[in-house]
Amino acid sequence: MEFTNNPKLDRPQQTKGKGRWIKFIIVTVLYLLFLWWIESWWGLIVVPFIFDVYISKIIPWGWWRKSRNTAVRSVMSWVDAIVFALVAVYFVNIYLFQNYQIPSSSLEKSLLVGDFLYVSKVSYGPRVPNTPLSMPLTQHTLPIFNCKSYLEWPHWDYKRVKGFGNVKQGDIVVFNFPAGDTVALNHQMEDFYTLAYREGHRLYPNPVEMDSLTRQQQRAVYDLYYEGGRKLILSNPQVYGKVITRPVDRRENYVKRCTGLPGDTLQLVDGQLYINGKMIPNPENLQFNYFVQTTGPLITEDMFRELGISKDDQWLLPDDADNLAILASMGLDALDAQGKPAPVYHLPLTQKMYDTLSGNKRLVARIVREPAAYGGDVYPLNLYTKWTRDDYGPVWIPAKGATITLTEDNLPIYSRCIEAYEGNKLEQREDGIYINGEKTDHYTFRMDYYWMMGDNRHNSLDSRYWGFVPEDHVVGKPLLVWLSLDKDRGWFDGKIRWDRLFKWVDNN
């Protein structure tokens, strides 16, 4: 600090010097509290730079402000603002909150397509990123350039810092897609494993009577399907695209409701959820798919709007012979006033919507719930269980520290947890099960796992199709809908859902 011989001039300089020290202490204390929170002291290397910014000023951080070139000052002011904004957004997105847009109808009517959510990272505790060097505001791909938005190195192990609580039964949760570790770039909406099994089935189309096979023989059939499909995908990049692997934090973000916690035994009976043998009340807006046959007239757009059924979900079935035969087998054989088959819609309905339609006897002749067989194959894809999306389990959800006995019946259910999520080498040989080269019939889980399902039960790809969600995949908890846009309407026709703005997310 410089002093003059004039006391009146010395006082302001002393005050200014004290101000710099006060700012430095405040910023440093806040930064140290942040390092304590994330439990990492590597960030101490930044403290000398903070000291230089406020006290020593050896590095000319604001050199451009003194430039006589106005163009330099103008450009660098923008660069300075953009860099600061990107750094701020980066840390806010990682440790505090991020935005998320609902892309599909899996949680309708609890959350709607076009809802923009405030997702709290601190509710469950933010994760330290696996790939810390990445471009803010991107998940895994840079727009325009169509390349990775992150660097593979450095790669940090999973770590979650303290938050305000834990995931609870009934919470709506944002998480990274568990089966999204391996992706065929031309089929990114479908996980690699489902794609491989599907293509394997296509290569070997002859039906197999699984009831007549032993577990070992069944496993051989499923191995054949998977390997055949896998080889087909890898050998045809022009069709399926390049096959890549993604770190946990660079997989797609999904949002579902947590219906099962670590250590729970979950079961679905005719669509009704049971946890540990106890029936769990359904969410208010739970939906199933139905076939709705009218008395003859078509359902009007005004009624669809009143019911809250989007255009994507308004499916009027064609009246060809094959469809009519299938519908007739379900009792949907009503005729209109001219003696022709009455129109049949395929619609997702809540109980309230069902009651509204079924009560309109002048319009609706019959309503039949969509059969469970329409749901396709469920998790695990390599085990013959006869489970469906409506009648599933019972299945035990792994808990950290819990040990299970491994058998031919449950190994396909837990093998992905053991291999993909917890990084072990699992082999099933003729003489038994080997983990990391050692024969064993037990396994102790190192992480907690969750079961996630959508409220739109028949239009939701969830844990029934790809299994458990590991704790290291949990991103955060949606708290608030800050914007909601209806894709079926124009800007002057109710596109903004004003009644949903700043609405708290129902986590019950």
What is the rounded distance between the termini? Answer: 60 Å
- CA radius of gyration is 29 Å
Structural class: alpha+beta
> Would you tell me the overall average pLDDT?
92
**Which word captures the global form?**
globular
Enumerate how many helices there are, as a single number.
11
* Helical residue percent band: 25-40%
Number of strands: 25
Largest sheet: 8 strands, antiparallel
Low-pLDDT stretches? none
- Beta-strand content: 15-25%
Family: Belongs to the peptidase S26 family.
Keywords: Hydrolase, Membrane, Transmembrane, Transmembrane helix
EC number: 3.4.21.89
Protein name: Signal peptidase I
List keywords for this structure.
single chain, 508 residues, alpha+beta, eight-stranded antiparallel β-sheet, four-stranded antiparallel β-sheet
Structure description:
This protein has 508 residues and is α+β, with helices and mostly antiparallel strands. It has a domain at 7-61. The chain has eleven helices and 25 strands. The chain has helices at residues 7-38, 47-56, 70-95, 192-203, 215-235, 237-240, 301-307, 321-329, 351-358, 411-421, 463-466; strands at 97-101, 115-120, 141-142, 147-148, 172-176, 182-184, 243-245, 253-260, 265-269, 272-275, 278-279, 287-294, 315-316, 344-350, 364-369, 392-396, 403-405, 426-429, 432-435, 438-439, 442-444, 449-453, 469-470, 474-484, 503-504. Strands 1, 2, 5, 8, 22, 23, 24 and 25 form an eight-stranded antiparallel beta sheet that branches. It has a four-stranded antiparallel beta sheet with strand order 11-10-9-16, with no helix packed on it.
